Amino acid sequence: MGDPASIGPEIAIKALLNPAIYAICNPVLVGDAGVFRDIVSRLNLNIHIHSIKHIHEAKFQPGTVDVYDLDNVDLTTLKFGEISAMAGEAAFASVKTVIDLALAHELDATVTGPINKKSINEAGHHFAGHTEIYAHFTKTKKYGMLLVEDNLKVIHVSTHVSLRQACDLVKQDRILEVTDLLYHGLISLGETNLKIGIAGLNPHAGDSGLFGTEDELEILPAVEEARRRGYDVEGPVPADTLFSKAATGYYGGVVAMYHDQGHIPFKLTGFKWNAGKQQMDSVKGVNITMGLPIIRTSVDHGTAFDIAGKGVASPDAMILAIESAVQLAKFRASERATERKSDYEPA
């Protein structure tokens, strides 16, 4: 569901208005059914909300949206576009519930809507975002945020930390870790171009130490070790040229050193602002958490509090996130089938 005061419930409902989604998966929304009924009423949508308490009760029929109902939002006090502990608690509960359902093998994959970190923290859950929540409750130590949109596939060495901390986290071991996560992510998404570009941290990738030493002391050794391990990598490549090449498909994937280094070029590619209408025409981009024992994809945009409840939010990113989750689930299923087959083959 995402944050109930955000565009999360709206884009979830709009995504499931697309019959093509039901052709590729059996979708279930997790959250407060009352919130979804309110959205349907506000937008005058011809769709029925079917409240369930167990996955086996779902109908999986176009025109009927199955909602695993947590019944935890007071609509009389909920206000669109406002931070609140109630909304934060509802958003957190929906995330925790899908994690539990996936770990129990009741779901093949999970897809998350946007949450507000301030609301989550006001509810007493001190996490920097979805990625950290998933890592905590799945007991995952090595993970990474992978962004996917058309030719750009970007993983990050660090994400939700200060820029000062981000520089300190540029270490050889972590760069190798996310390079490995990216490589396996590209394979699981069905990509054939496995060439990886690794960004420099400093301007001009440090320019031989003139503008910082991290590129020479941490990034370059990681690149050299990755090559020894058999990866097709280049780097450190100055970020101001790396992403222009990646956008053309030259690299199958890119390792960014910190949050904004990867997110800014990514969103320039996927987010289309209409100056005349003063709104987004399209918001594309999928966020995948790599390294988890369960599948998690997400929209790569925020809560958009300024347009919440107005009916103008684009479901493009949510549809792409669902499609990516299906692709990842199919790949994981094929891997397991191969493993089972090998178990029965004679030595």
UniProtKB/TrEMBL annotation:
The keyword Heme does not apply. Coiled coil: none annotated. It comes from the Bacteria. Keywords: Metal-binding, NAD, Oxidoreductase. GO terms for molecular function: 4-hydroxythreonine-4-phosphate dehydrogenase activity. It holds the Pfam family PdxA. Its EC number is 1.1.1.262. Gene3D superfamilies: Isopropylmalate Dehydrogenase. NCBIfam families: pdxA. This is 4-hydroxythreonine-4-phosphate dehydrogenase PdxA. It comes from Fibrella forsythiae.
